[in-house]
Amino acid sequence: MAPKNQPTPKRFQRPTSKPRSPLRRPAPGHDAQRTRSLPHEVRPALLQLGTQALAEALTFATPADMVLRRFFREHPQLGRRDRGVIAEAVFAVLRRLSTFTELAAGRDPRHLFLLGVRQRGAGDEPLLEPMVSAEERDWLAQAERIDTDTMSLAARAELPEWVIELLSRASTDEQILELGRGMQSAAPLDLRVNVLSCTREEAIAALEETGISAQATCYSPVGLRVRGKPALEQHALYLSGRIEVQDEGSQLLGYLLAPRRREMVVDFCAGAGGKTLLLGAMMRSEGRLYAFDVSSQRIHRLRARVARSGLSNVQPEVVAHEHDTRLKRLAGKIDRVLVDAPCTGFGTLRRNPDLKWRQQPSDLSALQDKQARILEAAAKLLKPGGRLVYATCSFLPAENDAIVDAFVSAHPQFRELDCTELLARQDIAIDCGPRLRLLPHRHGTDGFFAAAFERIKPEDSSHPPSPEGALPRSRSGR
Question: Which of 20, 296, 391, 441 could serve as 234's disulfide partner, Cβ 3.0–4.6 Å?
Answer without folding.
Answer: 20
